[in-house]
Amino acid sequence: MKVVIIGNSGSGKTWLANEISQSLSIPKVSLDDLFWQQGGYAQKRDVQEINYLINESKKEPAWIVEGVFGELAKEYLNIADCLVWLDFGWHICKQRILNRVGENTKEPNGKQTKQSLNALLQWAEQYYERQDLRSYYGHKKTFEFFSRSKTHIQSENEIYKLIDKLVKK
Known about the structure:
This protein is of the alpha/beta class. Helices cover 48% and strands 14% of the residues.
């Protein structure tokens, strides 16, 4: 099974990917880990390195890919079996981001700084205004384009139904 999960920051992509990955014992690919240098969210990886990491991860017979980076997610869609779009309102995403403060181990000291939290909140809040592939607009276009199995999730109940469906296949 090859699944791509997209959505805004705080929508639950990582949680869902972890649930599916652990239940099915298949690797999870975090687009954050591909995009950012190790040690934090301050330095982007070189494009050639990102492409190498994508191509290596695609060699696995099964995977769960999750992230907001639509341009990276698209690299998996040609061989993905399923696309999941987590589309929760900003009030839910914001609360989830705030709830996970301190869990961010990508920062150099292992803790999320107020500055990085504020930057993330500001960026994520603009999800509905931006027009790039990391936005509502971009995710919607990606979802519409994908022709195989796809699920647009807008409620907690739908998430649990999807987990049951994927895990019991």
